[in-house]
Automatic annotation (TrEMBL):
Signal peptide span: none
Quaternary data: Homodimer.
Keyword Protease: no
GO molecular function: methenyltetrahydrofolate cyclohydrolase activity; methylenetetrahydrofolate dehydrogenase (NADP+) activity
Keyword Transport: no
Lineage, broadest ranks: Bacteria, Pseudomonadati, Pseudomonadota, Alphaproteobacteria, Hyphomicrobiales
Cellular-component GO terms for this entry: cytosol
Pfam families associated with the record: THF_DHG_CYH (PF00763), THF_DHG_CYH_C (PF02882)
Protein name (database record): 5,10-methylene-tetrahydrofolate dehydrogenase/methenyl tetrahydrofolate cyclohydrolase
Pathway annotation: One-carbon metabolism; tetrahydrofolate interconversion
Span of domain Tetrahydrofolate dehydrogenase/cyclohydrolase NAD(P)-binding: 141-195
Length: 230
């Protein structure tokens, strides 16, 4: 029998915990959590995502600031803004909405963010800490962290003896998701656009499963997966 997990219920509990922590930090230390979102260009999807992030930050009691820059912004101008946010003691987290419009290069910008303010967990320092199991001082992308909440609710903290399949190998989700599962003692299979379709590669006891529709959306057709970026 399938087990239904209420995502809204889980999200509500996480939001309440973050609200309480933010309130306690401000009450006991006089520090209001500062969150800066940087968006370049006028891509509608990016603005939708950023709007949702900013609203959620405010709901959690953060001081949320959005920097909206024109598409013609230069690499140097964007880098200068990141450096300014790094030096701003009222800002504790920085998020740059990706992808950046061409010809801007995202990686040099991401690596400019102070690791302790890199809330997407994309800085090489945070990636290295995740790879070595340092979850105390390293920052991890919220998507794999959120997925682990569901996995633990279904299977507990120790995934010994279980197989997990991760679809995709992006730095934002696939790679950190695989590492989180490995840290919980699961045996992990990575399925991506350059390998046999995950429907045939997955072991029968996989922690993460999918529907035929999900595979179609992922670009799987027959024995191979159609070309995808991940």
């Amino acid at each position: 029998m399938a087990e239904i997990i209420d995502g809204k219920d889980v999200a509500a509990s996480v939001i309440e915990a973050v609200k309480a922590a933010a309130f306690d930090l401000e009450r006991t230390h006089g520090v209001k959590t500062g969150f800066a979102v940087v968006i370049v260009g006028d891509d509608p999807a990016s603005h939708t995502y950023d709007g949702a992030k900013s609203r959620m930050a405010k709901e959690c009691g953060f001081a949320s600031i959005q920097h909206t820059l024109p598409a013609k912004t230069t690499q140097e101008e964007l880098a200068a803004l990141i450096q300014s946010l790094n030096q701003d003691p009222s800002i504790h987290g920085i998020l740059v909405q990706l992808p950046l419009p061409r010809p801007l290069k995202s990686d040099p910008i991401i690596q400019l963010i102070l690791p302790e303010k890199d809330v997407d967990g994309l800085h090489v320092v945070n990636g290295g800490k995740l790879a070595t199991g340092d979850l105390e001082t390293g920052l991890v992308s919220c998507t794999p962290d959120g997925a682990m909440v569901f996995v633990r609710r279904m299977h507990g903290d120790d995934l010994s003896g279980l197989n997990a399949v991760v679809i995709g190998r992006s730095n934002l989700f696939g790679k950190p998701m695989a590492q989180r599962l490995l840290d919980a003692n699961a045996a992990v299979t990575m399925a991506h656009s350059r390998r046999t379709c995950p429907e045939r590669a997955a072991p029968p006891s996989a922690v993460l499963r999918w529907s035929r529709r999900a595979l179609d959306q992922a670009g799987c057709d027959g024995d191979r997966c159609r070309h995808q970026s991940d």
